[in-house]
Each structure stands twice: as C-alpha cells, then as structure tokens.
Amino acid sequence: MLLWSLAFGLLPLSTIGIYLKLCKTRVDGPKISLLKLLRTMPTSASANLETGQMYHYGNFSEDFLWGVSSSAYQIEGGWNVDGKGPSVWDTFTQRPGSGIPEDGVGNIACDSYNRLDEDLYMLRAMNVKSYRFSLSWSRIFPNGRRASLNQKGVDYYNRLINGLLALKITPMVTIYHWDLPQALQDEGGWEKAEMIDIFNDYCDFCFATFGDRVKFWMTMNDPQGIAWLGYGTGKIPPNIKKPGTAPYQVAHNLIKAHATAYHTYDDKYRSSQKGVVSIALNAEWVEPKDITVPREITAADRAMQFQVGWFAHPIFKNGDYPEAMKAQVLVKSELQGLSESRLPSFTEEEKNLIKGTADMFCVNHYTTRIVTHITVSFGIRRLLNWIKEEYGDPDIYVTENSVSTPRDWAWDEIDRVFFHKTYIDEALKAYELDGVKVKGYATYLMDSFQFLYGYIFGFGLHHVDFNNPNRPRSPKFSAHAYYNIVKNNGFPRTEDETMLYGQFKEGMFWSSATASYQVNINVYCLSIWDKFTHTPGKISQHDTGDFACNSYNKLDDDIAALKKLQVSHYRFSISWPRVMPDGTTKYINQAGLDYYNKVVDALIAANIQPQVTLYHWDLPQALQDVGGWENETIIERFKDYADVMFKNLGPKVKLWITFNEPDRPDTLPYIVSHNIIKSHAEAWHVYNDKYRASQNGKVAITVNSDWAEPRNPYKQEDYEAARSVVEFYLGWYVHPIFNGDYSPHVKRSVLEQSLFTPEEIKRINGTYDYFGLNHYCSVLAFPVDFGTTQHYEADSDRTWIESGSSWLKMTPFGLRRLLRFIKEEYRNPPIVITENGVSENGPVDLNDVHRKYYYEQYINQVLKAYLIDGVNIIGYTAWSLLDNLEWAVGYTERFGLFYVNRSDPDFTRTPKASVSYYSSIIRCNGFPNPADGPHECWNPNLVVKLCVSFFHSNKRAH
C-alpha cells in the first residue's frame, strides 16, 4: 500500500522522507561481531569438518554448575492454602474461556508445595549441582506488600533451601517469574512507576531472609515476555493489549526495578552474604537466511537488539536502549504522526543507575529462527558468542533450555535426548573452542503447567502423572541421558572416537568400485534400468545411464584413475544384457565378451586384480518380460550366465561376486529372494564343480547391511528391534548361505516355516568362499505395533554427521560392531568389504573433507575390528571410483573419489582431495602412529614422485 501511494503522489514529502529514513535504517551495517559470527562459525557438515569434528568431545570446567529448573506457578500448586494470595496467573487460569487446553490450571500442578521430599529425592538422584526455582511473590506477600507477610510461605522456601544445601545443591533463586500478586495488578501493575519501589521492597525482604544461604539471585525471569506478551499482545496475564505503548513503558519500569533491586543487594548485603545478582533473559538466535545480503544481516541484528538488547543493552552496556531499537521506534512513531518516540528515554542519572547491574549473564534459550521457526542447535553457540562479543565477555549461565514433547511420549522421548546432546554440545563448543565463559546449564526438572499450553506438552526430565492425586514422578529416558552428561561433565571422548594406530596384515587388498549401468554407455541391449530411466516421470530426463561416465570408451582414463589411487584391486560388474542380450545362451554377444576381456587384461597389465560382480541390478529386460526373479526358470538362466563368465574370464579373475545387494525382502516378494538365494548357490556349485581346481578363485555373494543400535538403551524392546533389523538386513540372505536355512528369527517373525526343501538346504549351505559386505551407515531401531503384528522402524541420532544422501549419516562405530557380529554369528569367515563410501550433493567441491573424514574413521574402525576383535578382514573397497549414476537419484548425489565432468565431451576425470588421502592409507596399509615420527607412506610428496616415475616409465614405453 505504501509503494502504491508513493506512485500516485498521495503521501506528503515529509512522509516520503521518513520512509526513506526507515529504509536506510534497514540497510545500515550491523555490528562487526554478528558478521564475524556468521562467517566464522559454519553449520554444514563439510564446513564444520574443515575445523574439526562436528560433534565435539570435551569437558566443562570442574566447577561447572549442572542444574535443573522450575518456577513456582508451574509446579507448586497449593494456590490458596496456608495464607497464599492469588497471582495474576491464578486469576487468569480460573477465568472461563482462558483458552488454555483442557481448561488447565495451576491449582495443584505438580503439588510441589506438599511434595517437597519427592522433589528433593529427584534432585539427589540426578546428581545435579544446582536447582533453579522461583519464589511465589503472593505466597510470601499475599497482597504484594511487606505488611501482608505470610510466614508459612517463608517457612516453605526455608525448607526447600535447607534441603538443597543438605544435598550440596546450589539454590539459584528467581525472585519474580511472571506471577505478579493480583492485588498489585489491580492497582495498575507494571504500567505504574510505583512498582519499582514495591518490587525493591520485596527483593530486599528476600535478600534479608534467604540471602545467608542463597548466593545466586535472578531478580526476574524473561521481562521481555512480561512486557510484550502481557501488555502488548495480551496473550498472558494481565492480558492487556496495548502493543503500541504499554510494552515499552512496562519494560522501562522493569529495567529500573531490576537495577534498583541490584543496588539494594550491592549496598546492603553483598559484603556480608557474598552472593551474585542478575536477571534471566530469554534469547532466541536469529539467523539471516542469506548472509551475503546486507539487508537480511541488518534485519537479523535488529531482531536480536529488539529481543535481547532491549534489556541487556541497558544493563550490560551503557544504561540505554540499543541505537537500532531507538531509531526504529522513532521512525515508526514519526510515521504515525507522533511528536516523540513511543520508546521512553532514560535520564543520565537513570543510565548510571542501570549500567552494570548484573554480575553474570543468565540466558534462557530454546530455538533459532531462520525466516521460519526451526529448532537448530547451532544457534545456542552463536548466541553465546554474540553475548560474549556484544556485552564484554561476561560469565554466562544457561538458566533454561529444553524442548516440548507431546504428553503421550511420557518416557520414551528421544527428541529431548537429541536436543540435550546437540544443544549442550554446542554450548561446549562455545566454552572450549570459542572461549566463551559458560559457567552453568539448567533444564526442566519435571513436566509442569506450561502456562498457555496447560499440560498437553512436557518439558521435563521427569514425567508427572497429573491424573493421579499423588502426582507421582517418573524419570524419562532423557533423565538418564542427562544424568550421564552431568556425571561425565560433558562429552569425554569414547573408545569409538579414539584413533587406533597400526597396520593390517600383509596381503590385505585395497580396492575401489563401480557398477556397469552406473558408469558405462549401453550400446547393445536393454536392461530393466534402461527401461526404467527412459520411462517419463521416473527420473530426470538428463539422468539416464545412456552415457553415464562413458567408461565403455574411457577405459584408459579409468585405469589411470585406479593407478593414481594405488589400489591393488578394482571391483566392477558385468552387464548381463551386454553379453547375453536376451538373458539366455541362445546368443552370446562376442563384442561384449571382448570388452570385458579387454577390461580384465588392462587391469592385470596395471598390476590391479579384478573383482567381478556378475549381477548388479541390471537384469536383461527380456527376462523381466517373462517374470524376472519371480519366475523360477531364472535360476537356470543365471546358472548358465555364470558358467559363460567363469569359462571366459575365470582364468584371469580370482574374485567373484554372484549378486550385489539382493536387497531386503520387505521391499520385494519372498519368492524373489528365495530364487536369488538358489541362483547364487547354483552359480557357486558351477564354479566349484567345473572351474575351481583349474582357476583357483573365490566366489561369494555381497549383501548390504546397516548396523542397528537400540534407540532407547534402557528398553529391552529396542534391543530386540535392533537385533531384528540386522537379522533382516544381513541374515535374510546370509543365514541360508552360511547355515543352510533362514534364521529362526526370520521364520518365527515372517515365514513360520522354511521355504526350502531339505535337499535345497543341503545344496545352499556353505556356498561361500568369503563374506562380501556393503556398509554405509547405522540406524537407531525401535518397535512399532500394527495391531496383531510388530514392525521395526529406524531413526538416526541428530549428532551424526550428515551427507549428501538423506539416508546416510556418518556412523563409523557401526562398521566395527557389524564386523564383530559377522565374526560371532558366522564363524569368523574371511570378510571383504565390497562397498563403503559417502556422498555429497550441491555445487562440486574437489576439497571433499567430509569424504576424507569418512574414510579415516570407517577404515580405522575396520582396523580395530582386525587388531582388537580378531575379525578376519582380507579386503576393503571404497565406493565409488567415479561420480556415477546413483540409480533413482540420478547424478545429484555423488559418491566418487573422482569428479566426472559430464558437460565435457571427454567426460574428464578429476581427482578430489580424498584420492590422495585414501591412497596414503593404502600405501601405509593402515595408520602409522604419529608419535613414531613422520612416516614416508603418509608423505604427499611420495605420491608426486610415484606419479612422475609412472609418467616417465610410460613415456619410455611409448
């Protein structure tokens, strides 16, 4: 409307000037500290890995105050007993039509007024060092003034404070947490300047009465909420809706009331009581959507100044409001035709009174805002750094931090566990990495009355049964998790995260991999993937495998890439329709056979041994047209195909894989998996009966498996779910091959009885020469009931580093545990890791630090499995050699060690940073100990020397 009016000249020039002035205030540069934070504290996984691990392991100081928190109205109950007067919240919640869900009131709440012993028991069990609670003003002074003193209220808080001290728990006391006595509100509440002296007298009494034992005071909690929600939007008591003026006047009085109380403590009690006083401010972090846009940075800074700076700037800086806030309110006041700003001014005397009236910075933090409301943990680190830069590096106490979960999630609330792990870890980064003086942290002790939300959400570590008159308290999963964080004083590095130095056995082979359809142009006959990728709507029109990486015509380039990696082996797959266009022996395509002989010969000439996969998902379309893997005749077709390949390539190939990732049966009919297992067994017997004696090779199947951990380690059902996930992922195919039949768990859960005849069991059992394993990540498992059946779902921990694929989180520990499981379950077979790797997406970045990290951590877990656990590891394969077609996601997710420029007609291959890193591990055959001094195998210059030597030898050869 404003721009429309400008266009038609409907606004006076003075208003246009004000508008331009307003625009200018929006583009003025923010503090350097905000820009510094945005530019130096990355949030993406790869960016964080540039400067260290995304999840930080370490400890807070020994005197760090781990605590829990509550507030009087939310937990005490006893609203009208023993002489207590009503507060504005008592009045509001009991008024019909308050809008609180289920007509919730705090009349009883957690009944802490009558259940002090239960609260103290919880605190002792948590082993916390501090407990933040608030005093009910109207329980001590029923009408808000000293003359109405209620001794029973004083006695209650004396019992609480003495009980805490007996447990060696520091009381952190908030004098005023939103529950103003109704009698004072009836006189005008915080809109009246007289409240300053009334509040000071109340504080004076508290200091005098409890200060001999209380050494940590907060005058008030979240004054911004009182001012804006109470007097602006009217959402909370006293429900006054005067957004233009009242919030600013109320805040003005609150700031002066705090400052006056601070000076009362300073003048009368500090020298004898030796305590500290502050104010608890609520602070979200505001993140600009695009840090390259000055207007967005300025807007974010202005939001921080209006939210935090409104109270913090006067108290911690110069006794006055932030300049951005004063300018913004002034301009909008002028636009409204007002003669002066709606924001009151402090006199010089008041500025001097207010400045410096806090001994530490107490902050409540719950979330970060990025255009829309998103909970992101990195915001607390940025907020703590912003407070450090903005307010002179004060001591900081996080006095509230938690997340709400639905009431139905009473005990198994994984979201709160993730929340605490990520938020506390970001606070630890601020403390250890950034030098922020973080001194304490507190979260909610128990579920309580959540003001406008009543009891429908829980913020606490303990569940309270509000339907039970005894209000029993029960620890949740998060209570156990938080207890361990407190016990460990942070996140000490575990054995999983500690590097092991050593080498693999002599003869360990190192490899990289591709698959036929993913890298090769298909010039002969259709596979099911050719048909799929050319079906409209299935995949991007540019993401077919028609040319892929053009490896069919770029063999020399692929061999050069493998040489640069210095691998001893190369895993690739045969295109079944390239050799047998209709999937049968009716016609053998000699050109296809010649191509694969050429590949094998080129590898051997480069001293690289071929690992050949017979079937990597690309079934001839002709076989699919007659039923594919659901048609039992395919067993004979696959046996014939394997026979042809063994006969033609077997004299030069010593490592065979029948099937790559036949996949889990919950995504395909059981008969398909049944036929695949029998096809594998028949192919193995063909090799064993006809070729093994002369060719002396090895044949196996490769399965893909995640590792699964229980989502809640305190629930037996989750352990059983984790076991089931591995049984179904890994055991569905492996158990018959290694033990002759489906596992008892699979038969009990799904099949009820074996699908194999006794003769088939005998023929399948033992059809392996090694164990082929593809592994990428781990999951958290938990059970889900579907009526009469139970299903198992998987989740991921938010602390796990992300990748370019939504399903792939970096979880190195899982690989070692999976290898150990295979050893114990299947009699320690020789294991070849046939795929392991990580993806990226978005703009191409050859400095793929996340992939280097992935290989370092995963291969080190393999080394631990070999050296410590005695797992029989004989080979490792990195997926993938090239950025190739990643099936249904096309080329958007890139796993390659080499970038392939598909816009270049030559399909040029460019090594990423991970190439030199992986080749160093290969040269070292593991990880040399840095304590032994620099090892030549880890010297990047050696790679250059080898490449130069290779270049000269090739030049001489030509």
UniProtKB/TrEMBL annotation:
Single GO biological process annotation from the record: carbohydrate metabolic process
Catalytic residues of the enzyme: E835 (nucleophile)
Key word Ligase present: no
Pfam families assigned to the protein according to its UniProt record, in alphabetical order: Glyco_hydro_1
InterPro entries for this protein: GH, GH_1_N_CS, Glyco_hydro_1, Glyco_hydro_1_AS
Segment forming the signal sequence: 1-17
Gene Ontology MF terms in the entry: hydrolase activity, hydrolyzing O-glycosyl compounds
Record keywords: Glycoprotein, Glycosidase, Hydrolase, Signal
Enzyme Commission designation: 3.2.1.21
Root EC class: hydrolase
Subunit and partners: Homodimer.
Family stated for the protein in its record: Belongs to the glycosyl hydrolase 1 family.
Name of the protein in its database record: beta-glucosidase
Organism: Cyprinodon variegatus (Sheepshead minnow)
Origin organism lineage: Eukaryota, Metazoa, Chordata, Craniata, Vertebrata
